[in-house]
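Long-time lurker, finally posting.

We've been working with Cation-transporting P-type ATPase C-terminal domain-containing protein (Timema cristinae) and I want a structural starting point before designing mutants. I don't trust myself to interpret raw outputs, so I'm hoping someone here can both generate the structure tokens and explain anything notable. Sequence follows.
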Amino acid sequence: MKADRVPVTGTLTEDGLDIWGVLGCENSKFHSSLVSSPLKLDVTSPLVAAMATCHTLTNIEGKLTGDPLDLTMFEATQWDLIEPGQDTNRYDMLTPTVVKPIRKEYQDKTKWVGGLDMETSEIPYEIGIVRQFPFSSSRQCMTVIARTLGSNHMTLYCKGAPEKISCLCRPNSIPEDFGSVLMNFTSAGYRVIALSYKPMDLKFNWLQAQKIKREQVETDLEFIGLLITQNMLKPESLPVIQELTAARIRCVMATGDNILTAVSVARNCGMVLPNEWVIQVKAQAPDETHSSRITYKILDTTVENSYAYSDCMSIMECEKWHFALDGKSWAAVCSHFPELLPYILTKGIVFSRMGPDQKTQLVEYLQNLDYIVAMCGDGANDCGALKAAHIGISLSEAEASVAAPFTSQIANIKCVLHLIREGRCALVTSFGVFKFMALYSLIQFISVLLLYMHGTMLGNVQFLYIDLVITTTLAVVMGRTGPTSKLVPQRPLGSLVAAVNVIPLLLQIVLTLVVQVAALYFLIQQDWFQPISPKDGEELIQCWENTSVFCVSCYQYLILATIYSKGYPYRNPFYTNSLFLLTLLSLTVFTTFLLVNPIDPLAEFFELMPLGEHKDMKHFRLWLLVLPLIHLISALIIEVYIANTKWLKDLVHFLTRKRVPKNKYKRVSEMTPTKLHWIAEIT
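Top reply, 14 upvotes:
Generated this for you. Predicted structure of Cation-transporting P-type ATPase C-terminal domain-containing protein:
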């Protein structure tokens, strides 16, 4: 895997949110101090009413259920939610969901309701939710139309992304320091929700509320404050990101949160190191006064360097920097600056305010650059990206699990490490088993060919022993070795026909041939040896040529199964696979028994030469054990010091005259900003 993409809330950070404070706004000015709890606010204020009504919570088996943000916000108000039941709907009465405060200090006070002075004991302070416009990723807000009991008009409440709410509100209701206050909170890592409201016209009735479109009512709102929540980083996020980074797996964040909040989380979880800069890409589509344009600015000044950079160009030349951009800029870049996308994608690390389609688009563009993309998400907004990614991992068993091939029952990103380790182990194991099966056929072919040249062949029982007992058993158990506990930077080979795979395989074939020929040559050099001379049509199996080649070839199957079960760096050592180790030892002992000291019935059954009384023959059997030992040492040298080594890759690249990387993202990364004239404007 070459790139890992994760959203923020619920994936890197905790599912639950904590209310850090509420900053109210009156007369286009923020309050002088932050209120730590909504309980300290006037219960009848629009700010509290917005927090109590603007949600999609529902009661399921007596328990409030819904979005974690909505749940935290509503519980902080200490209001009660009452939904219409079977009794209230018995006569088809249109009964709305009602919310009301449950604090006792408001039960004996007189309130102005609908312009009339009434005792709340006669008309309690309750708000009915008439219409809900659920949260929309494209609009980045949600809206409800509600009515206070006894009031002569309805009221609209809206909450959402601060930059979106500020566009929906009347300009004269937005404080002058709105941008700086928002930046202070988001750059510190807080998640900020803006709240607004609008009293509806007196003639606006229930029927109109049910038919009206949200675009018609989400205008000319009154900004009433900010809700600041704290979303703590999961304890598993930092070590996982650090291990992925150490393994040279690039991590990218795509989220619907504010860009400064996302950058803060990226720094806290280790995606952005303390000595690295973040440069924001701001792209704008053409309008009546300006053509399409793109600007770059340093997003923060938290970098711990002993010297300062004067502009973005000098920062880009040092290579310790990343790009960050929001969904609006992403759309503008895709539409008007498509030639810049490869460079932004190879250096981009934070993509904020991204909608579901934009997340999917991001995954597809990364794939076009030859990245192998894993997507880890937990929400409905991630479904498209989870499906488009090469590896989709859902941390939720709800909507996202339908689109993702993998679903984790543990709601943190440790599953990414586990999946990568298992994937690498599975790939290496598959290649190892394939090589073993390929060489098994060639070993047997060489054995049969050599024996045919000497007028003999393998017996039926010998074929069965090799095919069923040795090969099949080893092929079944050698794949049970588990993955290593740590990721390494080097990736396993992804192609069986790559030169660095084929060359060691050819060397193993040559080594197999040399050892079997050496066994026959050593046999011929014995003084007591007499070559066989079978008559025409005669099958002569039981002879020294057959015994020597058969026993040596049996060891070769065991040797190749051992070397192709190599552990580090992607698997545990082969001896941790107890079933494989037991099978290997059993077959080795039995094969040694067949060679060194076979009893007569067993030798007759396998059509091998019996032990005999000749002393030199016994010595020959013992000396024949040296050849498998030499084969084992030579095969290990090939696998350890030749196969998949850097010098072999460099040699292959030199011989094939490979000058540029095969992957597009590597070619793009090698191009520095000084070679590219794509910096339009620096701010």
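Before you design anything, note these points.
The first helix runs from residue 46 to 53.
The first strand starts at residue 3 and ends at 6.
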